[in-house]
Amino acid sequence: MPGLHQRQPVPAIRLTGEGGLEVFSVPSRAGDILEVRVENEPVMMQNPKGHLRGEDINTYGAEMVDWVEGFVTCGLENTGPQQPGLAGHGTFTRQPLEIISCDENHLKGKIRCVNIVTGPYIDVIRTIKVLPDRRAFRVEDQLRAGAISNNQPYQGDNQYLLLYHPNFPLRNGDQLFARAKIAVARDLISNCDMESLAIISGVGEGQAVFPPSQPTGEDYQKVRAENFERCYLMILEPLNNGEVAVALINKEQDRGAYLKYNLNQFKKPMAFQFWRNPRGGSAGLEIGSTFMGRAYAQKYGLLTTLKADETHLYQVEVGFLLGQQEVKDFLTEHQLTIAKPQLIKAVAQDPSQEEFYHREFY
């Protein structure tokens, strides 16, 4: 695939599926999926900088997290903002995938998420499959204790953070469909127009200012003018089998994309998170650990523990809908309506919002 620089193409493995589906998995990015096409049209977010190889990512420098696109995976040492000694959203996506098996419909490999000094010591067996009966792919990860020096097995407990971050392009009028019970604003900026969080507007509009302006009381004039990203933790009601589905559907309701997972695998403190960035033309349907960072997670007991004899299994499905009948059938099957959750706004208790966040959601 075309890379950040003309002379640095990004090697990818192409999987093909139903309905003209093409999935491009990048081994230098832990197998993360940087591009998906349906009938040769891109249907997931494309980074305007171009695709990035794992070795192109400066996860330890002062750069912001600017490598997000397609379907990326965050963790395992951090999910959220950069902190001293911790890269923003972690280093998972810059680890190489060691290929075990591959054909036109599936890819399986091993990712060594091991830092011999700080931990964690975790190996991930990742399988990516295009599904035979629908325009969709599934990512399955099995987390197990990894090795220390000289390939000796690690015998202790691993604590980790893991966030699946699939990203989609936005158009004005797109709507979030979900069985949403509660939505909690990440910060004061996200309070702005929270009542219409499920309806997308202002795509490509706004003045880029950094750091972004904070509202003054209920005055959101600068916030609206900048149109910066807004983020929400959400409690979604599962179906009887534990399955959760959430979808972004266009205003004509003839095209859409969805995320599916099972709540039995993503137990608390993991949660669904809706990231919307209309100014940048993208939104994320995210499932996993808190996006508030490791220090926050440690303070409130939100890390996940993997014991030496355990395997943790996670499966997420991303799919694409074409035509009004497909959209209607999907929404009916999964009992989805435009998201209208109970809203809990951030309050100005302290600059980090930590106390509010923990008490109201976790």
Task: Explain briefly what this protein structure is.
This protein has helices at 221-226, 294-299, 324-333, 354-360; strands at 13-16, 21-25, 33-38, 41-42, 71-76, 98-102, 106-114, 121-130, 136-145, 158-169, 175-178, 180-185, 230-236, 243-249, 255-262, 271-277, 282-288, 304-306, 311-322, 342-344. 8% of the residues lie in helices and 37% in strands.
Shape from CA axes?
globular
Report the total helices: 4
Low-confidence parts lasting 5 or more residues at pLDDT below 50?
none
Give the number of DSSP strands: 20
Helicity range: under 10%
Can you give the mean pLDDT? 92
Q: Order of helices and strands, N to C?
A: EEEEEEEEEEEEHEEEEEHEEHEH
Tell me about the biggest sheet? 8 strands, mixed
The span between the termini is 41 Å
What's the structural blueprint in terms of helices and strands?
Layout: E1 13-16, E2 21-25, E3 33-38, E4 41-42, E5 71-76, E6 98-102, E7 106-114, E8 121-130, E9 136-145, E10 158-169, E11 175-178, E12 180-185, H1 221-226, E13 230-236, E14 243-249, E15 255-262, E16 271-277, E17 282-288, H2 294-299, E18 304-306, E19 311-322, H3 324-333, E20 342-344, H4 354-360
Parallel strand pairs: 12-20
Antiparallel strand pairs: 1-2, 2-3, 3-4, 5-10, 6-7, 7-8, 8-9, 9-19, 10-17, 10-18, 11-14, 12-13, 13-16, 14-15, 15-19, 16-17
Features:
single chain; 362 residues; mainly beta; 8-stranded antiparallel beta sheet; 8% helix; globular
Plain-language structure description:
The structure is a single chain. The chain has four helices and 20 strands. With 362 residues, the protein is mainly β. Strands 5, 10, 12, 13, 16, 17, 18 and 20 form an eight-stranded mixed sheet that branches. Strands 6-7-8-9-19-15-14-11 form an eight-stranded antiparallel sheet. The longest helix has 10 residues, at 324-333. The chain is globular. It starts with 12 loop residues before the first strand and ends with a helix.
